[in-house]
Amino acid sequence: MRAHVRWLAVACVALACVAMGAHAGKVYRWVDKNGVVHYGDRPPPDAKLEGQQVRVIPVRAEPGAMARLRLEREEGMSLAFADNAIAGPVEVLLKFTKSVNTRGEPELPARATVPANGSVLLARLMPVRAGAGEFGLAMEVVPGDPRATPDDIVYGLPIPREKLRVEQGFNGRFSHTDTQNQYAIDFRAAQGTPVLAARAGTVMQVESDFDKAGLDLEKYGGRANYVRVLHDDGTMALYAHLREEGVLVRVGQRVRTGQRIGLSGNTGFTSGPHLHFAVQVNRGMKLVSIPFRMTGVTDRP
Asked: Which residues form the signal peptide (predicted)?
């Protein structure tokens, strides 16, 4: 995300703000018992009781931003804040994309860890000297606290034991070759198979409105329905490729080991229905997967 500001004078600052992307997947249309047409982002709770006919209108959905760059005016300067929009910590990196007669306190690039749903002042931006100036900003965001220290525990199974079948493990050559997925496990799972929390934690992020799949990495590599769960040690479990509307938990919800959190599917970069499971941490503004132990799958990393 980027913001551009021009200094009009030393004490007169133009402000810019990068807003979060909209996130809506469906619009519901229904006619009530009086013949009045209604539209909403969720179906009416009394639709069955009143015999209302509800029609679903698909809408292209884009994932919501994890954090928002916000600029506020203060005499002679601008204050750059990071607003965290998810139920878990994120690390942000603020940097100049352009800087004319402008400096930051602290100097940019600047990093900060922003707590769940919290805000942090990243830098004060001000002219170096009297006169016109201009600057542009970009903010990178990575989920997770870089100080996380993983506990040595054994994870439960993310799908029912009777359906257990591993298709790709650690360092799998098909798609487990990058740092985010190196230590992931893919479980074969027919669409609609229950997905279970392999460890207790807090639901940090969800995506449930995507309905496409394929082997075009550029087109589908960055999209899939998923649940990200934050554990007490700061690690994060990723449950990916869930089916459309296959998320059964909400952001901020506390889940227990073995609790049903979703339904498997075939969304994103995939050759067929399966569940992609990984344990990840943030290391140096980079999301990386880490080895883990799981009952009945791997006894040691």
From this structure: 1-24
Please tell me which residue, 180 or 93, carries the higher pLDDT value.
93
- Pairwise CA distance, residues 27 & 199, whole Å: 34
Summary mean pLDDT of the chain = 78
Count Cβ atoms below 10 Å from residue 28 Cβ, excluding itself: 16
The closest alpha carbon to 79, from 144, 28, 123, belongs to: 123
**Paired tokens of 241:** 């490729």
**Are β-strands 254-255 and 201-207 bridged in parallel, bridged antiparallel, or unpaired?**
antiparallel
SS3 category, 47: helix
Among 4, 7, 5, CA closest to 131: 7
Mean pLDDT for 228-247 is 92
The rounded distance, in Å, linking the Cα atoms of 148 and 93 is 18
- Using pLDDT thresholds of 50, 70 and 90, give the confidence band for residue 36: low
Q: What is the mean pLDDT of residues 260-278?
A: 81
Measure the CA–CA gap between 74 and 13, rounded to whole angstroms.
8
Pick the CATH number of 2-21+67-143 from 1.10.3470, 3.30.70, 2.40.10, 2.60.40: 2.60.40
Enumerate the domain spans of the chain.
2-21+67-143, 26-58, 154-294
Q: pLDDT digits over 191-237, tens only?
A: 899 999 999 999 999 987 655 444 444 444 455 789 999 999 999 99
Is the bond preceding 45 in cis, omega lying within 30 degrees of 0? no
Residues whose CB falls within 8 Å of the CB of residue 68, separated by 6 or more in sequence, listed in order: 1, 17, 18, 19, 20, 82, 83, 85
Looking at residue 84, what is its pLDDT? 96
* 154-294: CATH number: 2.70.70.10
Of the CA atoms within 13 Å of residue 263, those in its CB half-sphere come to: 8
User: Cβ distance 93 to 285 under 8 Å?
Assistant: yes
d(CA 224, CA 35): 38
- Asked whether the beta carbons of 292 and 301 are under 8 A apart, the reply is yes
